[in-house]
């Protein structure tokens, strides 16, 4: 019996080690420094790790990154609690040797809809994007791709294959859990211009706050590669603040200021953060009117479809849909770049990590 028990224990330990190695293979730009590991996993919205798996491989500290920039340092104490501190910079002597990101080809659906119109009860605009994300040094990244229209009975835009949103972006980590993300180029919602986001987001704190400033215009891709655009004339400034309800891993978020189309007002959201999805409700009141809506965000299965050492085809790590009950009145409208900084950093809060 002792021999059988020893054999079974060896098999269990071997399986655990093999699974830990498999998890490690999904990471990119890995740097190992003593018992610490720097990593990034672009196939998931959240960078949460299983510390039991890391300990199997000899690591006691996990330092997740966004585009090669460390966000925070995570450890497990003797009581099994997660401890979060400021992360050390990515080791410079490893940057040239270990800068290792795959060239990603990402399948991402685009969806907008309207319900309840007497003339057209259900209308939607659905595209499938094949995006490419190239991560450069110092937090820079380039996004581009091709948009394949599937259906559009919501707007007058033709169903022509066209370039997907194309822009350059940089993520910057400052001291004391302060972060900046800026983007310039052709964005989602047919907007182009410059967007700058700042967020103070201490993973140990219940309160986070920041600001989003952008200057934009509209652009259109018509058939036969015809490109049209308006002038840069829409200036938007939005301040945000959120409070985390730790018992339910939820956030109450207020965003106020000048939305698109010169619309002044505020938006109040309640978002419940589950392990694999965010689901929330919101209300908006502005000079253009008032409405309510639904917010959902989740990764599209199956994640990685095929890959080798240099290339990878996968589904998007984050599909986000904000449904407004009242459409067409320009109430509290915003556009998206690669991600909204306040939403993305909420996934690094210690309370969120404690769910896993």
Would you spell out the secondary-structure blueprint of this structure?
Blueprint: H1 2-25, E1 28-33, E2 36-40, H2 51-56, E3 61-66, E4 69-70, E5 73-76, E6 82-85, H3 92-98, E7 103-115, E8 122-135, E9 140-152, E10 162-163, E11 166-173, E12 178-186, E13 191-200, E14 207-222, E15 226-229, E16 234-245, E17 250-258, E18 264-273, E19 277-286, E20 289-298, E21 304-307, E22 311-315, E23 319-324, H4 341-345, H5 350-353
Parallel strand pairs: 2-3, 7-22
Antiparallel strand pairs: 1-2, 3-4, 3-5, 5-6, 7-8, 8-9, 9-10, 9-11, 11-12, 12-13, 13-14, 14-15, 14-16, 16-17, 17-18, 18-19, 19-20, 20-23, 21-22
Structural descriptors:
globular; 17-stranded mixed sheet; 356 residues
Task: Give the H and E element order.
Answer: HEEHEEEEHEEEEEEEEEEEEEEEEEHH
Average pLDDT score: 88
The shape, in one word, is globular
Secondary-structure-based class equals: mainly beta
Biggest β-sheet description? 17 strands, mixed
Low-confidence stretches: 7-17
Q: Give the C-alpha Rg.
A: 22 Å
- DSSP strand tally: 23
Strand content: over 45%
Query: Counting H and I runs of at least 4 residues, what is the number of helices?
Result: 5
Distance between the termini: 35 Å
Approximately how much helix is present in the residues? 10-25%
How many separate domains make up the residues?
Answer: 2
Detailed description of the structure:
It is built from five helices and 23 strands. It has helices at about 1-25, 50-55, 90-100, 340-345, 350-355, and strands at about 30-35, 35-40, 60-65, 70, 75, 80-85, 105-115, 120-135, 140-150, 160-165, 165-175, 180-185, 190-200, 205-220, 225-230, 235-245, 250-260, 265-275, 275-285, 290-300, 305, 310-315, 320-325. About 15% of the residues lie in helices and about 50% in strands. A hairpin with a 2-residue loop joins strand 3 and strand 4 (about 70). The strands form two sheets. It has a 17-stranded mixed beta sheet that branches.
